[in-house]
Amino acid sequence: MTVELRSGDVDAFFAAPFNAYAPDVGYVSPLKGDVRRMLDARANPLWTAGNPFAFWTAHRAGRPVGRIIAHVHRQSNSAHGTARAQFGFFDCADDADAAAVLLGAAERFAREQGQADLVGNFNLTAMQQCGVMTGGYGARAYTDMVVNAAHVPRLLEANGFARFFPMRTFELDLAAARTEGLRTLEPGEGFSFAPVAKASFAERMEEARIVLNDGFADNPMFVPLTAAEFRFQAGEMMSILDPRLSSVLLKDGQPVGTVICIPDLNGLLAATGSRIGLTTPFHYLRYRLGRQRAVIIFYSVARAMHGQGVMGGMLARTVTSLRDAGYRQLGITWIADVNAASLRQMEKLGARPLHHLHLFRKELA
């Protein structure tokens, strides 16, 4: 039975991981509508900015068993002096032929675009889901964490990809979190916290974008997000906000830090199959009544405030807010192994590593 490669089939792209992975892998998909928006050339600012992309699915007997997207982030190449194509959403059954067909399509795309190497997973940028899980299989993931089966790194390596840029995700038991000794950010020092609530959502998120771009400016592979890109990525959060969790830190009225923390949606998404249907309101009510897990999507401190204990103070306040709101567990999305300061912060808080991740790279002849 041969593998059929299809291009541009959104429904198959969404369905492929459900066919590729057994339920005990723990894969949870973004909402189907969000996947469709990501792939829409007219809606996603990443594409309307002129970045070429294509996506494929691999089928056996008409059934999608794998998927991949490839694109060129021209702004990233310009910022970092690279000639790189990126792949993402590489999810595949333990099927060597299907993997070879999908990765081969991505490689051809990269060569046709004149790129020197192919790197992923980026789903779709470094500020969205990032990496390939290489350890910690079986640990329950949080929203925005990559999950794949243990055979996926092997399939990549069999096709000439090598792992680099190690990362980790973390989990913090809020009852046992250690916040003693962390800085307290007092109003007398000019600090104040502005909650990210629905009434001020647009203003707060723009401040968060400014702080994110400044705080991450020196990080490898980061590209400043435009206002349109940030709104596209963050807009969906407004409907699930818990204003007690996210905030922007102001110093003398100017934004200098941010923590974007949301309730973990994975239980709800798993219960609904990541689709909106007739039973969704029931599942949503059940989720709202019982939610005890939250996840930090990102946090950042302006470079002028680095090395002053500001991040520790922000995380300590977030932990207290989570405890007061009845949450018990906190997930932290990926932190690169080169980010020694953030790793030390996790150690101080008492967070434990949850998953290991790597990027994978292949040089193109």
From TrEMBL:
Keyword Iron: no
Annotated InterPro entries: Acyl_CoA_acyltransferase (IPR016181), BcerS-like (IPR039968), GNAT_dom (IPR000182)
Domain of life: Bacteria
Keyword Translocase part of the UniProt annotation: no
GO MF, one annotated term: acyltransferase activity, transferring groups other than amino-acyl groups
Keywords from the named record: Transferase
Short name of one Pfam family: Acetyltransf_1
Residue ranges of domain N-acetyltransferase in the record: 243-350
PANTHER family, per the entry: PROTEIN YGHO (PTHR41368:SF1)
Name of the protein: GNAT family N-acetyltransferase
Annotated organism of origin: Sphingomonas spermidinifaciens
Lineage: Bacteria, Pseudomonadati, Pseudomonadota, Alphaproteobacteria, Sphingomonadales
